[in-house]
């Protein structure tokens, strides 16, 4: 059997490659069984030629679900994962929901492997049991004498063997078992083993993977949208004539987010948008970073809503032998995936089809239906791979999907909506800016005795469809990583202010932990130094009741050579953080140049994510998480001036480059626990580890991100 | 009409001379393997080879390209390219994959000129290619792996 690339176009897929001239769509559906096919369940089907197809319900955006999820099936089905063909699931909340999210299909919160862990092993085992049963009946032998092995059912006593493909007709007539037996972990031959390769490397190396912007339909037009230059502004008036006068511009239509300029191709639409004249309203009090900082600094002096309280923090603050306070700040951040947002929408009287790297299928389906004036079941979503997302494509407003549908409706033709990089950087849905105000006290022995942490920043959940998840005014994603601080400090209080602003905000790879880990792990480092303690020793003392934190901390420290002397100008810093039920510790080593230039030389990372299903993908996610977090720590910053983002493209929204990438060593903790998050947990510790290393090298404390090129 | 030589094939396009090659490739010729990332020559996702040298297709007006040899990832051939692509797959370099065609093109040109590049040489050649997934370490390792198999022959 030939290796199949997850991203290329499959047998069950609906696309036909028409030569080098691109893609044209043919009719068809991913749902129907082909003749002679054994559809074992929602995830596994086997064709008469033995080809196994695994349906992947999650978005492949680089994090490796198209590799790890089929491995869960292959382990139990006893097939070679490299021979599996992958189909991306249609939007179907009943069959393909995220089991951690209730009746909703989507990818996020580092849940893809964790929620699929039992489901996909059962899917593989169920198919296997049916094939074995079919073989037992065919051979008229006791099924106890049969084993499934490498795509065949083998009768040990006689040596007879039947390929899966020869059993599909019989197996299809059997009833799927409810609880097929699963392998004991000791018997795993794929899960947790080295050597499993990514399913998509070849297609992505050769450039043949299909992303949203690659879809071509007969009569397809391309749309760009002119959106308000200032957050909170609305469309007042526009003159479509200068745009329509240009060759290739076919329509200019107002939609709810702005004015869409529609062209025969991207370049025409782009030129049309430049020519378009639009008047926008001027919102009152448009926010600027400076005014936000001033207002929120004042808020930090006031008590917030209490997210966690133990002991008596206020009283204990006054009783310590040493008191410390500090304010930490993190900026707005754009996700800036390499593939700017896009989608293709084809609308007819009773159907809406959408092609995109879809991260929120059920929600996007409902929002698209609303925009189209259809029922959700009339919306088909064809999920493609995404060129990154980092949270941007999981948008409760379904912003780019709704835009695509509105334009398709207005122009009466299939539409490819494209966002430019400038649209992406200026378009909001940022990781919110946050201020963190700390007060702490040390006892006579230099140990923390009180910790008060006030967090101030916009709520992501507020005002959206998930607002019901806000409890007693506390948006848990604003305080995650802070309210569950693991350190044994007797008097501890975490408070939250959630001021409202017109800037749209969204989760960004590791969400709350992307800022809380920086603030808490740096401030704890301050307490260690103020109390005369080694940062590792202090954490060790405060984490006695948190063995998984402690274990990754010890592992990273040992592998990094923590405590060994470094030459002048170099420093080591560490951080440990739990996010998405995984535990990651990182030790960063930095060199400070003669003019204060910062070079991050090496990062040692230890991760406990339960069973690492595909260890090399886990390593890749730690490497990538470190790069993503470091990019933000060093350079990432959206600043606002009078309600508009001041950055627009990669020249002023700097991202980490090859020459700035440190050496990264990843160590995975052996574990028998069920898998937990991997895509995000590598991000939170890197900023504090680097800032703590800078302090170790220079004695200078970084309390505001980004750090910049120099200290 | 503008006559272009793309991946060894003569193609005629009816495009305004100032239209960037990227959009001619993608929207007129359906050659999707060259990708839009920034439109300003800042990220490298749209890299193609012009007479064997890497350039940013998003900043290259098509009117200037008559008689020039254009190579996209799809037409990238030869011993070095084969070794580079094999090393990329062997080390599972890609994550989201969107930037990788540009990275592979740049790496291939580097190795054609310099079969034993140092880390600094790799930085020089690839620093303009952004990867938001952070596959840089693996890119570097894949270039060294491919170099080790070149046997000094460019």
UniProtKB/TrEMBL annotation, chain A:
Domain of life the protein comes from: Bacteria
Span of domain Aldehyde oxidase/xanthine dehydrogenase a/b hammerhead: 206-284
InterPro entries to which the protein is assigned, alphabetical: Ald_Oxase/Xan_DH_a/b, AldOxase/xan_DH_MoCoBD1, AldOxase/xan_DH_MoCoBD2, AldOxase/xan_DH_Mopterin-bd_sf, N-heterocyclic_Hydroxylase, OxRdtase_Mopterin-bd_su_IorB, TAT_signal, TAT_signal_bac_arc
PROSITE patterns hit by this protein: TAT
Pfam families linked to this entry: MoCoBD_1, MoCoBD_2
GO molecular function: oxidoreductase activity
PANTHER family, sorted: ALDEHYDE DEHYDROGENASE
Protein name as catalogued: Twin-arginine translocation pathway signal protein
TrEMBL record, chain B:
UniProt keyword Transport present: no
Entries under Gene3D superfamilies matching the protein: 3.10.20.30, [2Fe-2S]-binding domain
2Fe-2S ferredoxin-type domain location: 1-76
Annotated InterPro entries: 2Fe-2S-bd (IPR002888), 2Fe-2S-bd_dom_sf (IPR036884), 2Fe-2S_ferredoxin-like_sf (IPR036010), 2Fe-2S_ferredoxin-type (IPR001041), 2Fe2S_fd_BS (IPR006058), Beta-grasp_dom_sf (IPR012675), Diverse_Oxidoreductases (IPR051452)
Keyword terms: 2Fe-2S, Iron, Iron-sulfur, Metal-binding, Oxidoreductase
PROSITE patterns, alphabetized: 2FE2S_FER_1, 2FE2S_FER_2
Any one Gene Ontology molecular-function term assigned to this protein's record: 2 iron, 2 sulfur cluster binding
Keyword Iron: yes
PANTHER family: BLR6218 PROTEIN, OXIDOREDUCTASE WITH IRON-SULFUR SUBUNIT
Protein name: Isoquinoline 1-oxidoreductase
Species: Paramagnetospirillum kuznetsovii
């Amino acid at each position: 059997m030939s290796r199949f690339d997850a991203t290329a176009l499959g047998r069950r897929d609906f696309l036909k490659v028409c030569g080098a001239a691109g893609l044209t769509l043919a009719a068809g559906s991913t749902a129907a069984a082909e003749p002679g096919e054994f559809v074992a369940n929602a995830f596994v089907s086997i064709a008469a030629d033995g080809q196994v197809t695994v349906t992947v319900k999650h978005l492949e955006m680089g994090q490796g679900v198209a590799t790890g999820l089929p491995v869960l099936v292959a382990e139990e089905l006893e097939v070679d994962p490299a021979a599996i063909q992958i189909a991306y699931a249609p939007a179907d909340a009943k069959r393909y929901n995220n089991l951690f999210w209730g009746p909703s299909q989507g990818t996020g919160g580092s849940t893809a492997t964790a929620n699929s862990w039992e489901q996909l092993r059962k899917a593989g085992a169920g198919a296997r049991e049916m094939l074995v049963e079919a073989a037992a009946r065919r051979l008229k032998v006791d099924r106890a004498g049969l084993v499934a092995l490498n795509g065949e059912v083998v009768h040990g006593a006689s040596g007879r063997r039947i390929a899966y493909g020869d059993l599909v007709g019989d197996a299809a007539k059997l009833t799927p078992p409810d609880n097929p037996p699963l392998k004991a972990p000791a018997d795993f031959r794929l899960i947790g083993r080295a050597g499993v390769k990514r399913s998509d490397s070849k297609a992505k190396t050769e450039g043949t993977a299909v992303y949203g912007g690659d879809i071509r339909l007969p009569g397809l037009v391309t749309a760009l949208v002119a959106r308000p230059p200032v957050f909170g502004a609305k469309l007042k008036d526009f003159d479509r004539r200068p745009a329509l006068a240009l060759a290739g511009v076919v329509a200019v239509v107002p939609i709810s987010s702005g004015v869409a300029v529609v062209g025969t191709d991207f370049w025409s639409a782009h030129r049309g948008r430049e020519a378009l004249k639009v008047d926008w309203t001027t919102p009152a009090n448009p926010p600027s970073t400076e005014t936000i900082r001033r207002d929120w600094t004042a808020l930090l002096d006031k008590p917030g809503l209490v997210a966690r309280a133990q002991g008596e923090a206020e009283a204990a603050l006054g009783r310590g032998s040493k008191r410390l306070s500090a304010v930490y700040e993190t900026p707005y951040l754009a996700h800036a995936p390499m593939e700017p947002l896009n989608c293709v929408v084809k609308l007819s009287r009773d159907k809406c089809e959408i092609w995109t790297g879809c991260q929120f299928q059920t929600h996007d389906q409902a929002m698209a239906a609303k925009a189209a004036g259809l029922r959700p079941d009339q919306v088909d979503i064809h999920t493609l791979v995404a060129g990154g997302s980092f949270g941007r494509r999981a948008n409760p407003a379904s912003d780019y999907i709704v835009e695509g549908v509105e334009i398709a409706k207005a122009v009466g033709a299939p539409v490819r909506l494209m966002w430019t990089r400038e649209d992406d950087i200026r378009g909001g849905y940022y990781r919110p800016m946050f201020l963190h105000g700390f007060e702490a006290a040390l006892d006579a022995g230099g140990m923390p005795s009180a910790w008060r942490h006030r967090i101030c920043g916009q709520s992501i959940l507020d005002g959206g469809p998930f607002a019901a998840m806000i409890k007693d005014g506390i948006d848990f994603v604003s305080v995650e990583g802070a309210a569950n601080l693991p350190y044994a400090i007797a008097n501890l209080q975490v408070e939250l202010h959630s001021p409202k602003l017109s800037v749209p905000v969204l989760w960004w790879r590791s969400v709350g932990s992307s800022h809380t880990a920086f603030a808490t792990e740096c401030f704890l480092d301050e307490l260690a130094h103020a109390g005369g303690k080694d940062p590792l020793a202090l954490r060790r003392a405060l984490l006695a009741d948190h063995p998984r934190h402690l274990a990754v901390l010890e592992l990273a420290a040992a592998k990094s050579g923590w405590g060994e002397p470094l030459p002048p100008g170099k420093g080591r810093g560490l951080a440990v953080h739990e996010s998405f039920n995984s535990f990651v510790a990182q030790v960063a080593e930095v060199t400070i140049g003669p003019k204060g230039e910062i070079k991050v030389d090496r990062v040692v990372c230890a991760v406990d994510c339960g069973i690492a299903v595909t260890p090399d993908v886990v390593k890749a996610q730690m490497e990538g998480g470190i790069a993503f977090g470091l990019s933000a720590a060093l350079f990432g910053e959206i600043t606002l001036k009078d309600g508009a983002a001041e950055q627009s493209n990669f020249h002023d929204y700097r991202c980490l480059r090859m020459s700035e990438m440190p050496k990264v060593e990843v160590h995975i903790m052996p574990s028998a626990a069920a898998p937990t998050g991997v895509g995000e947990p590598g991000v939170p510790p890197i900023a504090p580890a680097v800032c703590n290393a800078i302090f170790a090298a220079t004695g200078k404390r970084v309390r505001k991100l980004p750090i910049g090129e120099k200290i | 009409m503008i006559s272009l030589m793309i991946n060894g094939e003569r193609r005629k396009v009816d495009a305004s001379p100032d239209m960037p090659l990227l959009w001619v490739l993608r929207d007129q010729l359906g050659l999707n393997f060259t990708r839009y990332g920034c439109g300003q020559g800042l990220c490298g996702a749209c890299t193609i080879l012009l007479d064997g040298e890497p350039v940013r297709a998003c900043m290259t007006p098509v009117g200037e390209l008559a008689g020039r040899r254009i190579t996209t990832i799809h037409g990238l051939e030869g011993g070095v390219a084969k070794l580079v692509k094999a090393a990329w797959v062997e080390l599972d370099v890609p994550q989201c994959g969107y930037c990788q065609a540009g990275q592979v093109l740049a790496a291939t040109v580097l190795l054609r000129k310099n079969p034993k590049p140092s880390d600094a040489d790799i930085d020089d050649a690839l620093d303009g290619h952004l990867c938001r997934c952070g596959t840089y370490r693996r890119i570097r390792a894949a270039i060294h792996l491919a170099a080790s198999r070149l046997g000094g022959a460019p």
